[in-house]
Fold this protein.
Amino acid sequence: MAKKQNRNIKEDKKPVKVGILGFGTVGSGTARILVENRELLEGRLGFPIALKKIADLNIRKDRGIALGKGVLTTDALQVTDDPDIDIVVELIGGLGAAKELMLRAIRNGKHVVTANKALLAERGREIFAAARKYGVSLGFEASVGGGIPIIKALGEGLIANRINYVYGIVNGTSNYILTKMTDEGMEFSKVLKEAQELGYAEADPTLDVGGADSAHKLTILASLAFGIPLSYKSVYTEGITGITPADIAFASELGFKIKLLAIAKAADGQVELRVHPTMLPKDYLISKVDGVMNAIYVNGRETGDTLYYGRGAGDMPTGSAVVSDIADIAQRITGGAPPKSGLAAVKTAGTPLGIRPMDEVESMYYFRFAALDRPKVLSRISGVLGENNISIASVIQKGRKEGEAVPLVILTHKAKEKNVRKAIRKIEGLRAVVTGKNCLIRVEGEE
Ligand code: HSE
């Protein structure tokens, strides 16, 4: 039998007690907000929130937060097993200790708040099932979009809508890198180092630049928006590591900017889930979202487009989202409301949507081929595209080096991914095309 905690309504003014696992970037942002905004929160909620414990392996680093004596501990079980703690906040990250400790806290009847998008996207089915079984709330506002309240917007504000699509920039580090590469012509590796120093990047930055972090976030958003199970493995994922200054310059010449987009679109009973660098018309609002900023469009059948913009990473914005979940759950505890797991939309009635295979997805495309500058090369390439039902919108060829490869850029009309891959394989087999030096970027916008 599941052990359910009987949470009686708190007496007036009795604090709701919080314990934090992980005192890194987000942990310290959360602690700072709880300490420095204590009175403000109490004024708004009508009762105090007390930060009782913070556990981390490294508690020596001074983070300049006025914590009470005995708050810091190196023993995570002092948080998960303390009968006095109502809400456990998991800010360790990753799929290892974070998962075990979160499940332990849930089994102990604690409500849980987390920013761990990787854990929710990849192991969320187990975690949400445990939260339901033990009758506790699971808050994850901080898992997507940093300080942007996108989880609340989707789960509550837009609850009346049928969602057509959700897409956006959900990785601050990649956006920061692309912005610096675009505006200052900086090299990829140098900008990545800067983003790490600013505390935006994941502990393993390949999660940022390889697209997995965006895919984790898209998994959570799509589940909320479309009532589909968490489907991380079905997200087509490509990162920004292959983007060169040359592609950024060609994009600009063609009137586009390159952004790492996470896209979930529903049509004809299926949802497409994809993360990849995307060329967008420069005059689109989302093209102007630069630096660490995130922006997410949600299109509801009833509302039309809605757009959410804000800081997608960093200690205080993400801490703000964590504290919003703490406040939400604390109000449930004090008001005696039932627990909430946030993924209510998963229970959406009606025929569940399937996932559209990437091969069937349609998009416009930008290709850059390194091709020898001699007669018939362009006609051969365009011939292969034509055979595969891919129609060309424009072509640019730059430079002239006798006997050497020059960049040949082709923009297409809408084509099917399956046909594009087939065509690319054939084009890379042409003797005039230099394999390994070509590039494909999907293009969004009006045809
Ligand atoms: N590494 C993430 C980002 C942090 O750059 O967006 C916020 O999830």
